[in-house]
Amino acid sequence: MSAVGAGVLAKLQKRLPNQIGANRQWSSTYVSSLILAASHAAEERIGMTWTSQEIALANNTNEYRLDSKFVSVEAVEFALDGSTYERELKACTFDDLDAISAKWRDDTGQEPTRYALLSTPGHQYVSDGHAARIVIHRMLASASPAKIKVSGWGIGTASTNVPDDVQERVHVPYCMAIMRAEHDPKEAAWFYQQFVKGCDEIKGRFVQPYADVPGGLSCR
Amino acid sequence: MSVTWQNIKDFFYETVGDTASAQAFFLSEDVTAWANEALREAAERVEFSDYTEWQESTSGTATMVLSHALPVALWRVEYDDEKMQPVTLAAVRKANRFWATHSGTPRAYMLDEMRTDADVTSLRLYPEPSATGDTIRVYGYGVQYLISDASPTQPVPCPEWFAYCLVFGMLARSYMADTEMQSYERSEFYRSLWEDALMRLRGRSYGRLNKARQFKPSQPGRGLSVRNLIPEHIPEPS
Lengths: 220, 238
Prior knowledge:
The structure holds two protein chains of two kinds. By secondary structure, chain A is α+β, with helices and mostly antiparallel strands. Chain A is built from five helices and ten strands; from the N terminus they run βααβββββαββββαα. Chain A has two domains: 2-47 and 157-206; 49-154, no CATH class. The model of chain A has no long low-confidence stretch (mean pLDDT 91). Chain A has helices spanning 4-15, 28-46, 94-100, 164-180, 185-206, and strands at 2-3, 49-56, 63-65, 75-79, 87-88, 90-91, 114-118, 133-137, 147-154, 161-162. By secondary structure, chain B is an alpha+beta fold. Chain B folds into two domains: 5-48 and 145-206, no CATH class; 50-141, no CATH class. Chain B is built from six helices and ten strands. Chain B has helices at 5-15, 28-46, 89-95, 166-174, 184-206, 226-229; strands spanning 50-56, 63-65, 73-79, 82-83, 85-87, 103-104, 108-110, 122-126, 128-129, 135-141. The longest helix of chain B is centred in the last third of the chain and has 23 residues, at 184-206. The interface between A and B is large, with 66 and 63 residues.
């Protein structure tokens, strides 16, 4: 196991000797970005990294911004004291909330019971109306110190540890596909196929074996 | 850590063997245009971005013009925190001959017969608002923010895990352009990667709520129940 940034770089240098670095075909900065792109693509397909975000609730506020590290949201929990998460919020749509209360946005209570999502999880923040957000029902009139914890599959960084064989079968083919495309798109297509195949094979290691149980976790 | 426009642009230029400072093969303005084109294509095809806009009502003003000039498909409008119903102007005309002067708390909105400028999205509230200062929220699919070289450190408006895939959409377009770099084969390769990435984003976008999502039970109705198929009055045999 090694950090994905350094590990994949070392493996690529063996396949493309004297081609990566200063005054060579590919700069180290570019290859680092490429490895990060490979890492994001692999994490989205396989579901390797579980991530969570704690959000301190504010008075009379039902909409909160989500981190861009999410790929999917799988669970949302509530802690009245800000530390003991013992209530799970149910996922729902705006239509479901309309059926509960015409003015659900104004409803307040002791604890939120449902949540809805705006924009695909991971949407980066550009402005208040343009980011991934979570909407909770009911908001709290006096929120402090209550928190919610949003959990789901996410993306890591260049220093995230990934097994070496996964790097070999997933990250390396992805990088090779982009680096060889300028020379031979057919060869590049073969590498990309290896990346997709690698993800499909490796996915079984990370997915919970209880996905068929209601409430069991799985990465689509 | 967000993926910015500068990250994407540098990545694009080095993939084609160029640099952002030299621009030997592709001009920066073309690259920016391809990025925006790819973003809009993604937004329209897979509906990943729930763009939101807030405005306040003005008494006597029924027309609401959205502040951006980009095409979006509206999927929800709220007036004073309550959902409004979409209707057509044709239906309102039939229902109320004095519809144009009818004022009160708006409960419906219309999009038809409103678009006189293809670059502007506007809607009409019905009835005309009688109050000033009520919140109108509009939700739609679309990209509100366009990438620009003027703000290179701004995050790209898409999911972070998808951001680098935007380069595939840009490369597919750039290799189609009639330049020395033109290559239909490379363009086709990047187009297939772009389509693959869009399919992944579509899955994440349409299935964003988890499997344990609360759903509305079906409403009781006539359906195919045997009891509902029996006529209310069975006539005597003649």
